[in-house]
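User: Could you check the structure of this?
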Amino acid sequence: MGHAIVPPYLLARIAAVQEPQWSRAAQAARSTLAAPRDYRPVRSRLRLSIDAQGSLVAETTPAPDREISDAQRREVLPGVRVRGEDDPPTGDVAVDEAFDGLGATFDFLWDAFARNSLDGAGGSLLATVHYGRDYDNAFWNGERMVFGDGDGEVFTGFTGSLTVIAHELAHGVIDDEGGLEYQGQSGALNESIADVFGALAEQHHRGQTVEEASWLIGEGIFTDAVQGTALRSLSAPGTAYDDDVLGRDPQPGHMRDYVDTRDDNGGVHINSGIPNHAFYLTAMELGGRAWERAGLIWYRALTAGTLSPTADFAAFARATVAAAVAEYGEESEEVLAVRTGWTGVGVTADGTDTER
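Assistant: Sure, the predicted structure tokens are below.
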């Protein structure tokens, strides 16, 4: 099963709605839940800048290699190729938004972490749009991004949200680094790291500081009929939506509210709110641009080669502290900020792991 941005419990709620005005959305949710999502695990460009002496400096940096295909409302991949790296905009909003979102994510990974594409080796960025009819999701299938157009009643299209695009592509980065088992706390970490990178990609694209950022994932993918702003909030888990059809955002932001469930692979989309909020607290403690220090620490923890595929929250907390120590030193404000973040969500207390 591929990683998808809309959690199954949310689609199940929509699918169960009986009111006639939501009939299209209910049918779309049922179809989306039933649709298969099989999971199947260098270009360069010239940049010009001005140096400290006022001289024009040319440097070659990696460039993305993007390819967008159109499924033409069928559930068949990859679809028909409609835009490549050197092609002009097509005028199809979903195609061009996907193309731009892939590029913005590529730029974030390179500028923030010096990572050349998802695999670190300039691998192609592939996406398919117009997947299925009224398909209420976007997902990463191990090879490409896949976007539905939404049902028009609850969900609009998914290509307009950079956080959605970067979140799903981040699963490719996580997979390339050895992966995190998609179950329980390791699965929630998988989802959380993808949310963190999704938020950071948007902040990087907009040049936002931690105070200016929305810290929302999926902002703008709901129609105006929905009482909600986004799928998830890193700054305030549990507050992203509160709607008659969707229910209330179930994410906890602290270990005392951890949800024990067999649904959603052990609550991977729900309990991800806890490490999400730990990152937010760390980033706010440090201030400035979140991708520069907090984001780099999370990235170093992911890519250090020391993280077990079954790592729990406490293990990832230790990994982020170790990454901060290696990058900035034992007595640095960065290490203190990371410890503050994990203590703030109850994963650690006074530097000691909280057992669960």
